[in-house]
Amino acid sequence: MFERYAPQRYGVFLLLGFLILLTGCPKKPPTRSYQDALEALKRARQAQADKCAKEELQSAEKMMAEANKLMDEGKFEEAKVAFDAARKLADKAREESELNKEKCLKPKPDNTVKQTPPPTLITANENPTADNRQSLEPVYFGFNQYTLEGKNRDILQRHAEWIKQRPNSRVQIEGHCDQRGSIDYNLALGERRAIAVKKYLEKLGVSSSQLSTISYGHQRPADPGMTPEAHNKNRRAEFKIGS
Amino acid sequence: MSRFFLCFHRYLFSGLWILFAISFVQPAQAQRLKVKLGDLSLKRYPIAIPDFKGDGRVAQKTVAILRKSLDLCGAFRVLSPASYLERAPRDGFDPNSFDFEPWKSVGAEGILKGNVMAIGSSYRLQFRFYEVGTQKLALQQDYIASNDSQVRWYTHLFADHLYKFMTGEPGIFASKVSFIRNNRGKQEVWLMDVDGQAMQRLTNNGSINALPAWSPNGRYIAYTSWKERNPDIFVHDINTGKAQKISSFQGLNTGATWSPDSQRIAFSASRGTDNMNIYIVNADGSGLQQLTQAKWGERNLSPSWSADGKQITFVSTRFATPQIFVMNADGSGARRVSMQGNYNQAPKWSPRGDWILFTGRDERNVFDLFLVSPTDGQVKRLTQNQGSNIEATWSPNGRNIIFVSTRNGVAKLFIMTHEGKHQRQITFQPGQYLTPSWSPRLSKD
């Protein structure tokens, strides 16, 4: 189908034309986005997302089907957006699955009981005075992102231990955004960030009764500047400890 | 309760002022419109506003209001007084008391003259508008104003008459703008006149307040406030000065917007989940109805009603990136209308019905204002290369837009025509100015 788009007289330029297609010219089929989405779905399935992140995988597959439909209709720009979305959803499914793997692949003797903390936490409990921080460090996000990756997961793992050691404490998770874009969208994004953190902490065994969330959008910047550094500091979830 | 609201109340609902106003429009119906709004080929109407006669301080104030306001709306070109001031004082105020020839030479097609006279503690304001072409008195209006704020009000009311006389459409000056002013971290709801003057703080709770929305009947302002430690929606009654909480679900309650009949409010809420949906309630908080059904962390937000009340535009992340959608007012038939860009937000349906105004991020990651047609998806760009331009509101007649721009550093309010022409800064005092919401016309006249 690519030949259709290149005048045949200029056979030498066929290869060049093909390369331009690959770099994602918006009026042409979004080949690159399609490949990436396909790859991401494959990886998600390999990570057994069909067992451990069923909902997430389904939504990725649904988006993929939507994208394919748009592609068939020749709506390439929309299809590209949808493919990119499918890739993101698939990546999320994979992450979610990797996180849940241990739990979901084990036979569950009794799934009505609240999940028991992993053994590492019990060792931490042997010495409860070891971690006496009075504040919990924030976690930071990419532009328009709310997923929790590598470093943030380590930080939240430590926060979870800290909170679980203090069953009387209450922690409010504040979602914040950088100061670009409209206030209403950023309020919704801040809410999403705060809730993503809350869910993750709950997954790590923190009681939901100890956690609450609030979004401040971009109305309480950590750094009032408009530089990239300030933006990076502002896209965050903060933790306010009460009792 | 401040004096402002007492006066404001009277302007709105009593109509008593009509007793003091003697007004007639001479050949209004026969007049061919001099300014056709929306026709980009037409030039702004050149008008001279020489210094007014009579009481010095109030006369100067009145003339300053008219020069500034008529310039802001983009339908008039107010000639620089420097080009004619020398001969103005010799001119008379009444018909046949001055010569039209000199005004032709300064390029004026219209002359607005005024006379301000103190009568006891009140002022009599007389406005006379002459057309240079016909050499005739075209419009005249007299008012009695009992204090400074009434002087402002009647001057703006006359500006509206002149606007309507020239364009055939309702004016924009007998209205106000609510907005958030962030001054040293205090983010309160404020009000001001369209020309950026007469600023007045509406809330004083010391917390964060956001997204004021003026009801189309002029009586209420809905806003989001953190004053009770959760972002909840309140409705402030301008008559009583009291605020009523109308949505306080767990989590985010925000983006309140009014139906054209002022009976219902649409808003969005997370209810403590990672989904966000759009709801409708009656203005008193009763009769909750859910319009969208978000799944898998989808967010639906920023609703805005169409002028006929039959549809609602909103933002949804159902295709991953925030995009502008339109649905029927009962939640059915949702469809995407923004097909370009990957970060489209804050849609506002034009009171004229033909366009949806929104904030978009272009390929260089700059935020600007755009229009999109709800019927065919055509897009027009309104701002470009002037800092970040976001969060806009329509004038009640759909001919002007007030928006937030950072072109001069800090976020301030600007005004432009609905074609993006004639952009002018209107707020200059300290602080960040955010999320403006234009009131309806606050006069029945």
Which key features would you list for this structure?
heterodimer; A: about 240 residues; alpha+beta; 60s Ribosomal Protein L30, Chain: A; 2 domains; 4-stranded mixed sheet; 9 helices; flat; B: about 450 residues; mainly beta; Rossmann fold; Neuraminidase; 7-stranded mixed sheet; 4-stranded antiparallel sheet; 4 helices; globular; disordered N terminus
Widest β-sheet, arrangement of strands of chain A = 1-4-2-3
Q: Average pLDDT value of chain B?
A: 90
Euclidean distance between termini CA atoms of chain B? 26 Å
- CATH topology of the largest domain in chain A: the name is 60s Ribosomal Protein L30, Chain: A
- Tally the helices of chain B: 4
Task: Please report the number of helical segments of chain A.
Answer: 9
The CATH architecture term of the largest domain in chain B is: 6 Propeller
Number of domains of chain B: 2
Which band does the percent of strand residues of chain B land in? Answer: 35-45%
Q: What is the number of independent domains of chain A? A: 2
Mind sketching the topology for me?
The complex is a heterodimer of chains A (243) and B (445).
Chain A: H1 14-22, H2 31-46, H3 49-52, H4 54-72, H5 76-105, H6 119-125, E1 139-140, H7 150-165, E2 170-176, H8 183-203, E3 211-217, H9 228-234, E4 236-242
Parallel strand pairs in A: 2-3
Antiparallel strand pairs in A: 1-4, 2-4
Helix pairs in contact in A: 2-4, 2-5, 4-5, 7-8
Chain B: H1 3-14, E1 22-25, E2 45-48, E3 53-54, H2 56-72, E4 76-78, H3 101-105, E5 110-119, E6 122-131, E7 136-145, H4 148-167, E8 176-183, E9 186-193, E10 200-201, E11 209-214, E12 220-225, E13 232-237, E14 243-247, E15 253-258, E16 264-269, E17 277-282, E18 289-290, E19 300-305, E20 311-316, E21 323-328, E22 335-336, E23 345-349, E24 356-361, E25 367-372, E26 379-381, E27 389-394, E28 400-405, E29 412-417, E30 424-425, E31 432-438
Parallel strand pairs in B: 2-4, 2-5, 3-5
Antiparallel strand pairs in B: 1-7, 5-6, 6-7, 8-9, 8-31, 9-10, 11-12, 12-13, 13-14, 15-16, 16-17, 17-18, 19-20, 20-21, 21-22, 23-24, 24-25, 25-26, 27-28, 28-29, 29-30
Helix pairs in contact in B: 2-4
